[in-house]
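[Discussion] Sanity-checking designs against the backbone

I'm trying to build intuition for which residues belong where. Below is a structure token string of 152 positions. I'd appreciate it if someone posts a full sequence so I can compare it with mine line by line.
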């Protein structure tokens, strides 16, 4: 059975994990955070593009798909080292407690996600200076009813 490591437990990594697992492949999923779902889960997105579906309708089934026997999940973990061996790879996965484990796989998918840019770092955008200029995280808070949490 082919074994694939997916680095990143956000929407892209979860989608890859679900598809590979459905094809009968063994998947090793590595996520640096304590939960799967990536930025949409961490920032409590209300809707996801392009269909504007509720984020939970998209993310929750992808997370649920990792609970089958073909998927091994490493949370709070990072890949510290990768060595190509023959037709595959040996990757050293370490968690925050300092425990390490070597995973042997045939392929690696990097789906490392993203962080929102803090618009305060570019004063020319006017964010925090000019009224009614918002960044995507502000709009997400408005959509999810957390608008009172907007602080600049």
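Best answer:
Here's mine. Compare freely.
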């Amino acid at each position: 059975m082919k074994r694939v490591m997916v680095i990143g437990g956000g929407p892209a990594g979860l989608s890859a994990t679900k598809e590979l697992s459905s094809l009968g492949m063994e998947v090793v999923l590595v996520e640096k955070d304590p939960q799967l779902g990536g930025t949409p889960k961490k920032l409590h997105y209300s809707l996801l593009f392009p269909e504007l579906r509720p984020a939970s309708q998209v993310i929750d089934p992808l997370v649920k798909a990792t609970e089958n026997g073909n998927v091994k999940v490493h949370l709070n973990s990072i890949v510290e080292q990768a060595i190509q061996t023959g037709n595959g790879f040996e990757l050293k996965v370490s968690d925050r407690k300092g425990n390490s484990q070597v995973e042997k796989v045939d392929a690696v998918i990097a789906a490392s996600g993203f962080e929102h840019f803090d618009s305060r770092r570019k004063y020319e955008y006017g964010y925090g200076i000019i009224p009614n200029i918002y960044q995507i995280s502000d709009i997400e808070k408005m959509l999810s009813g957390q608008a009172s949490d907007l602080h600049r």
